[in-house]
């Protein structure tokens, strides 16, 4: 099969190489998937630059979509031919989705409804599972008010959609009219540009009774704004790092009985992953999940795809593996 892989950390153009290699065989409990689209996330380029690789080579990219073409022992052979979306393919595994085929435990190959395109399926894994964990770790959010910062980012967009679907009122922040349109289409009730003068006043006006939970892409940059609208006993969930760690105003947080929570999707419990997959599948079947703008690259051009994500491309960067 064709695969793009790297043998050590470095810049995309320096270390990502297109190779021919043997197609993996599914181990017991695994499925072999013909990848149609590979989804690229920030985690994929960040992992590629991390020193201390413990394997001799790595095929990048956690997310994807394709068709099951083989099953290992213990997996129902009726799954062959099933269209699936994939998550966590390169988590503790060498076979990411930047290849014609990948093998994953069968639970990481989730049936994709016929109504949903492979492109959309390849963009689900990391963003939607992360967003789900940020929203629902404390239980039901119906009737609550959620602030989603960076509402046109992949995780932010997913958080708006899932929170809206769950019956929450959603306030989203963005940095441009183009991003505002994306956040509104995802279901945000109020969208505010956090870079314009008067943003804090607009935020307080949009949430006169405060917000219950913040799903935050930049906790340090947004802390003053978040705390200005967070209700007592509110929760700020941070899922992204910044260039430097923030200073925490301990007394203010104590006074408000605020919870700061930090999540990483690779550490979610099987129960949290199962709940996310169940809700995402239900939302897909209902047709309540939309698509971000998509940017397609060939497998040969995987380095450019990684660079586009690193540069902050608006929308989903996908690698087209071909029919
Ligand atoms: N912990 C986890 O498990 C986990 C899972 C997924 C992703 N992540 C991390 O989360 C980050 C975002 O991932 P993504 O896939 O959603 O990336 P993305 O699609 O590039 O979106 C990032 C968004 O954040 C916005 N943003 C940046 N600074 C902001 C600020 N101060 N206030 C409001 N919005 C801000 C950006 O828009 P503007 O620049 O226009 O504001 C952009 O829309 C990455 O660092 C990624 O590594 C972590």
TrEMBL record:
<dbReference type="InterPro" id="IPR013154">
    <property type="entry name" value="ADH-like_N"/>
</dbReference>
<dbReference type="InterPro" id="IPR013149">
    <property type="entry name" value="ADH-like_C"/>
</dbReference>
<dbReference type="InterPro" id="IPR011032">
    <property type="entry name" value="GroES-like_sf"/>
</dbReference>
<dbReference type="InterPro" id="IPR051603">
    <property type="entry name" value="Zinc-ADH_QOR/CCCR"/>
</dbReference>
<dbReference type="InterPro" id="IPR020843">
    <property type="entry name" value="ER"/>
</dbReference>
<keyword id="KW-0521">NADP</keyword>
<feature type="domain" description="Enoyl reductase (ER)">
    <location>
        <begin position="13"/>
        <end position="319"/>
    </location>
</feature>
<dbReference type="GO" id="GO:0016491">
    <property type="term" value="F:oxidoreductase activity"/>
</dbReference>
<protein>
    <submittedName>
        <fullName>Unannotated protein</fullName>
    </submittedName>
</protein>
<dbReference type="Pfam" id="PF00107">
    <property type="entry name" value="ADH_zinc_N"/>
</dbReference>
<dbReference type="Pfam" id="PF08240">
    <property type="entry name" value="ADH_N"/>
</dbReference>
<dbReference type="InterPro" id="IPR036291">
    <property type="entry name" value="NAD(P)-bd_dom_sf"/>
</dbReference>
């Amino acid at each position: 099969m064709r695969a793009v892989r790297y043998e050590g950390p470095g810049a995309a153009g320096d270390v990502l190489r297109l190779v021919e290699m043997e197609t993996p065989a599914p181990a017991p409990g695994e499925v072999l998937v013909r990848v149609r689209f590979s989804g690229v996330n920030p985690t994929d380029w960040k992992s590629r630059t991390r020193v201390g690789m413990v394997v001799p080579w790595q095929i990048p990219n956690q997310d994807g979509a394709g068709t099951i073409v083989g099953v290992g022992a213990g997996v129902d052979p009726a799954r062959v031919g099933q269209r699936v979306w994939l998550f966590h393919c390169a988590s503790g595994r060498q076979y990411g989705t930047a290849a014609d085929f990948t093998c994953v435990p069968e639970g990481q190959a989730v049936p994709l409804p016929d109504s949903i395109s492979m492109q959309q399926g390849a963009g689900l894994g990391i963003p939607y599972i992360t967003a789900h964990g940020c929203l629902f770790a404390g239980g039901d959010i119906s009737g609550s008010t959620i602030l989603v910062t960076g509402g046109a980012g992949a995780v932010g967009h997913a958080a708006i959609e899932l929170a809206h679907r769950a019956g929450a009122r959603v306030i989203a922040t963005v940095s441009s009219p183009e991003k505002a349109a994306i956040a509104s289409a995802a279901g945000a009730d109020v969208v505010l540009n956090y870079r314009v003068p008067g943003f804090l006043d607009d935020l307080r006006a949009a949430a006169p009774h405060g917000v219950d939970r913040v799903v935050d892409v930049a906790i340090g940059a947004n802390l003053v704004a978040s705390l200005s609208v967070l209700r007592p006993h509110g929760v700020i969930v941070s899922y992204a790092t910044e260039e430097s760690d923030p200073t925490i105003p301990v007394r203010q947080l104590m006074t408000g009985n605020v919870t700061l929570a930090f999540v990483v999707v690779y550490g979610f419990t099987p129960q949290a992953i199962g709940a996310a997959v169940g809700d995402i599948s239900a939302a897909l079947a209902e047709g309540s999940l939309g698509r971000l703008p998509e940017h397609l690259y060939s497998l040969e051009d995987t380095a450019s795809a990684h660079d586009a994500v690193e540069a902050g491309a608006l929308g989903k960067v996908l690698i087209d593996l071909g029919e």
